[in-house]
Amino acid sequence: MSKIxxxxxxxxxxxxxxxxxxxxxxxxxxxxAIIGPSGCGKSTLLRVFNRMNDVVExxxxxxxxxxxxxxxxxxxxxxxVKLRKKVGMVFQRxxxxxxxxxxxIVFGLKVHHLVKKKEFNAIVQESLESVMLWNDLKNKxxxxxxxxxxxxxxxxCIARTxxxxxxxxxxxxxxxxxxxxxxxxxxxxxQRLKKDYTIVIVxxxxxQAARVSEDTGFMLLGELIEFGRTADIFTAPKDKRTEEYxxxxxx
Amino acid sequence: MERIFDEELKQLRQYILMMxxxxxxxxxxxxxxxxxxxxSLAEAVIASDKKIDELENKIDEFCLDLIALRQPVxxxxxxxxxxxxxxxxxxxxxxxxxDIAQRATExxxxxxxxxxxxxxxxxxxxxxxxxxxxDAFINKDVELAKKVVLSDREADALRDFVQKELIYDYxxxxxxxxxxxxxLILVTRHLERICDHATNIAEDVIYMIEAKVVRxxxxxx
Lengths: 251, 221
Description:
The complex is a heterodimer of chains A (251) and B (221).
Chain A: E1 2-13, E2 16-27, E3 31-35, H1 42-48, E4 59-67, E5 70-71, H2 80-86, E6 87-90, H3 101-112, H4 120-130, H5 134-137, H6 150-163, E7 168-172, H7 180-193, E8 198-202, H8 206-212, E9 215-220, E10 223-229, H9 230-235, H10 240-246
Parallel strand pairs in A: 3-8, 3-9, 6-7, 7-8
Antiparallel strand pairs in A: 1-2, 1-4, 4-5, 9-10
Helix pairs in contact in A: 3-4, 3-6, 4-6, 6-7
Chain B: H1 4-36, H2 39-70, H3 74-108, H4 118-139, H5 142-171, H6 178-210
């Protein structure tokens, strides 16, 4: 069963038909990459899954997105706080709050009233350990997070996302602001996190999609052109348009 | 959109074609040396092997560079993989041509055992299979590649027939024919192995074009 299932999903920005009849299932505790040229709708698709597009004026969505079989446009999930507790997001540029490292991590816990304050310390440690920052930062927890390196900031943002124990982590170009070494470390981290989370990553970097993901979807002009095992997509894509894009013949 | 990478892939194709033509020539000359009992032709085959070996190394190195520098995917990756496998098959074929040339040298030193009829037939099948495998590669012709794979059975059957004849009609009846019959048996074996390598190339061509692995899976043809 798919963790996230998009059924006949359509999205319009005003009159612009940005997502066209997307049908796609994301496997649980797998990393799925969405690739495609700029403007193909891959970030829009990602943002549907935690309803980030709701704040964009003139957006209209049709179809269904089921998470654990529950439509996110309906019922309980109309409480967006609840949805975003379940579906965390990591952005292109690391965006820690101008607060201490500690406060960054417990921020979500406070918003969601998830746990008692006395448990905060343990969760801060656990979250920083899972992004491999604990040893470096355990004596600097009350320093401002804005003083960290870019890579550390991005790790902190991932720690902040997983502190509230979501099921799904959406990543929108999470390494594009990082140098190759930091990129590699974040990719390694993703592989480790996979055992606990369903990860969906949008990336321009095809080698990154190939390295980190198990499934890949290729989008073009708002349509999902092809979806399959990453190894199949990168060795023997079925659609000519996928072939042209991944071999750099597109455009 | 034409990429700079496409020029490099064209270059790789040229290398493979160059190697294939040298190998075809070596096989042809080794068979002629055997048929015409021409020692100098046999020596020419043996001497030509070094150039083919060097070309194999050059192709492998070029492929590794392309993988490292261009990070190929999809059809580009399948083509480069095919090139790396096929150059090994071509190199083995050239070695087998050398083997045939060496057997020819041994046979030339002795009186003929019998007129050669079926061995040249087997040689013709082998040469045809090699040529067609290369043609399938050049023209991206899946049907021709399939034909090559299927004709391997014919080569196997002819090899069995010739070997039985040499064993039962000659060696069993008259043990003194062994020094001449054994090299001929080996020649059939070498020719049949050439057919196997041509089959490998044809299977790789099918993989390159259709991304379908038919090696060890004849039912997928």
